[in-house]
Amino acid sequence: MRVRLCATGDLAVGQVRRFEIEGGAIALVHCESGFRALVDVCSHEDYPLSEGEVFADVCEIECLRHGSTFSLSDGSPQSLPATQSVKVVPIEVDSGDVFAVIS
Fold it and tell me: Which domain, by its residues, includes 47?
């Protein structure tokens, strides 16, 4: 199932936005290489990643609470204190819209 999140022009490169969808919240990020999404919770502590800073050039996001960074490509932690990955949400871009693909 695909869930429309926004138009591609609604999110500039380097921005993140939280979306509530069936099954929970996701953080949609516009990196230099395209759109990526993760479940919107840091694996180190229950804190929304959508509150963090985006590093669009390397496609990573930093948790505002403790500074852990996560790859937006595979959800893996790139720095401590986080040691667990965050689930990646598949994204499709179609006719100028961004969709989350929910299984």
Answer: 2-101
E runs forming strands in 32-87: 34-39, 53-55, 60-62, 69-71
Query: From CA 88, how far away is CA 94, in angstroms rounded?
Result: 19
Asked if residue 48 has a cis previous peptide bond (ω within 30° of 0), the answer is: no
Question: Which pTM was predicted?
Answer: 0.95
Per residue in 18-68, pLDDT (tens digit) is: 999 988 999 999 999 999 999 999 999 889 999 999 999 999 999 999 999
Q: How many H-runs (helices) and E-runs (strands) does the chain carry?
A: 0, 9
Q: What CATH code is carried by the domain that includes residue 29? A: 2.102.10.10
User: Cβ–Cβ contacts within 10 Å for residue 77, how many?
Assistant: 19
> Distance between CA atoms of 55 and 27, rounded to whole angstroms?
14
Strand ranges in 1-103 using DSSP code E only, listed in sequence order:
2-7, 16-21, 24-31, 34-39, 53-55, 60-62, 69-71, 91-94, 97-101
How is residue 64 annotated by DSSP? T
